[in-house]
Amino acid sequence: MERPAAVRVKICGINSAEALAAAVAAGADWIGFVFFPRSPRALTPAEAASLSARAPAAAQPGAPQRVGLFVDPTDAEIAAALEAVALDALQVYAGAERAAAIRLQFGRPVWRALGIAERTDLPAALGGADALVIEPKAPEDATRPGGNARRLDWALLRNWVAPGEWLLAGGLSPANVAAAIAATGAHAVDVSSGVERAPGRKDPALIHAFIAAARGVEGAR
Fold this sequence. Notes:
Layout: E1 8-11, H1 17-26, E2 30-34, H2 45-52, E3 65-71, H3 75-84, E4 89-93, H4 96-106, E5 110-116, E6 131-136, E7 165-169, H5 177-184, E8 188-191, E9 196-198, E10 201-202, H6 204-214
Parallel strand pairs: 1-2, 1-8, 2-3, 3-4, 4-5, 5-6, 6-7, 7-8
Antiparallel strand pairs: 9-10
Helix pairs in contact: 1-6, 2-3
């Protein structure tokens, strides 16, 4: 497949001022705040609010939108996050029925994360969500459903007809994101561990390199 035009990029697991500044400067379309305590990138709602305040308002041209990531969240957990920080979308690890209920309850676009191990795991419908995040299924001994630096088998997506908007995730890095886009035809990509120097510690240089590579900028790593 050829590279899609205007590939959009989400930098997930933003948890420091330097990571935020790099994502904004490099032109990330979305910045992700993780509200899952088991993640090395986890933030409290107050911490996310403090970081979000450092970035241009999402309504400004070229500013990144804020995405909150939740794993099997309760309504109270989502409400607490939204009370502290304005989130433009809610990325959830939850079933289709629960995703639809969250969308109805909070009036925000919902992205549903799906772990894929086989071709038959690929969805034929959005299942109550506004977009899907397609990533590899987590290992059985994993402590979290995503952010495990595990690469999806891109061949599984060959000739898949996506039911709507979707993002490709899982094991992406500055070195392989261009190949991933070419192989899958993804119009949007989501990265976390692939732009870190250590678990939970984003590397500004890798953030810049990833976004440049995703968009096909000459000279990117």
